Amino acid sequence: MAKKRSRKKQLPEEPVKVTIESLAHDGRGVAHVDGKVIFIDEALPGEEVEFVYTDSRKDYAEGKVVALLSRAADRVDALCPHYGVCGGCSFQHVESTAQIRIKQELLAEQFKRIGKVEMPELWEPLAGPHWGYRRKARMGVKYVAKKNRVLVGFRERRHPYLAEIDSCIVMHPIVGTKLLALGEMIAELTIRDKIPQIEVAIGDDQCVLSIRVLEPPTDADKELMRTFGHAHNMSLCLQSKGPDTIVPLDGEPEIIPTYALPDQNLEFKFKPAMFTQVNYDINKQMINRVLETLNLNENDTVLDLFCGLGNFTLPMAKFAGRVVGVEGDQPLVNHAKENARHNGITNVEFYAADLSKDLSDQPWANQKYNKIMLDPSRAGASEVLQHFKKWQPEQIVYVSCNPSTLARDAGILVNELGYKLVKAGVMDMFPQTGHVESIALFEK
């Protein structure tokens, strides 16, 4: 029997005029046409726009602005020539202080709607550089035979293809200004079509590019890479499989990137593919806010959940009596222990554990902690919150990269576990993008 061909519904081609009512959590404008919600890229509340449909589903549709009929006060002209094509940024059309205000309003809305929790006293937002701040990234690489060009950068907005860009002004300039040169160097390699991605890791004084290779490079390829690395003050490494296969080019030293926290006299070492915060300026401010909020002394026993390589654990250990860090990734835990040794810190312990699973057999989980710090992934921390009944901490500081899961978890802490949401606010970790980094304090 012949298969039925699925026919995608034809989208209307004529522009449609609407007034933007609000913003969605990802920064897109929200309007309604015939009762159906439309999410429109680069449209701001109050603006009258003409848009064309880019997608239509059963219960919502998507579109992009083709004509701006009225202009919101918060609108600015995007600085990057690739904005709108490259999917790396979604907020460059919004003035910088307005970006932070919008994110703060979104956080309050999510607390109320998802968590059923009223927004408490607001922290002053933490802000830093709006450009050139990004130190960690995974960039795509694509050899385009028709153009005889290698593209390096990020995917197009809402498309799987790599955008044709020659620079990135949110990336740290040591890499952001070199995308064209990097593509030209890769175009000269024999394996130019066997390189899918580059992992970027920039420390305070080091830049490591881990080049994923699907086939081994020739000696001549390696020499081209080496010359490029020396010319641009970068260490180029090869990655044949997973993150643990990253190695320097033959004869080159292994460069371990580091970042310092001068206020706490700490230095962190990390491997190129390990998770670290992308924005060092905000990270320093964020750690200071956590320390001020918890006001630690030698009588405090602190549990740091989702601790990574000890970004919060070690600063807290400078003031607390004892700190226990727990993280799901064993290599990160090993590295956290190494960072503790490197900084001469002895009042910390680190454990590897899946925090979404039952923890009753874990010795560290059967101890008491009077303060808890948590910094989970986008998925949040709902499973581990059930253990808070046993730990009964007086104070909880929750750092989040996803306001909707923070709001959900705030609902559990407040409405089920009897905590009060005392204070919350946003931190501008990802300027020019819709990502919202926030912090909340809960007390018994």
Assign the CATH topology of the largest domain: Rossmann fold
**Average pLDDT for all residues:** 95
Structural class by sheet pairing and helices = alpha/beta
- Stretches where pLDDT is under 50 for at least 5 consecutive residues are none
Q: CATH homologous superfamily of the largest domain?
A: Vaccinia Virus protein VP39
Number of helices: 9
> What is the quaternary state of this protein?
single chain
| Proportion of residues in extended strands | 25-35%
Would you kindly provide a written description of the structure presented here, covering whatever features stand out?
By secondary structure, the chain is α/β, with parallel strands linked by helices. The chain has three domains: 16-75, OB fold (Dihydrolipoamide Acetyltransferase, E2P), CATH 2.40.50.140; 101-129 and 279-443, 3-Layer(aba) Sandwich (Rossmann fold); 136-248, OB fold (Dihydrolipoamide Acetyltransferase, E2P). It has helices at residues 96-113, 173-176, 179-187, 219-231, 280-294, 313-317, 330-342, 388-391, 403-415, and strands at 16-19, 22-23, 29-33, 36-41, 48-56, 60-68, 121-122, 136-144, 149-153, 197-202, 207-212, 235-239, 246-248, 258-261, 266-269, 301-305, 322-327, 348-352, 371-374, 395-400, 420-427, 437-443. The longest helix has 18 residues, at 96-113. It starts with 15 loop residues before the first strand and ends with a strand. The model has no long low-confidence stretch (mean pLDDT 95).
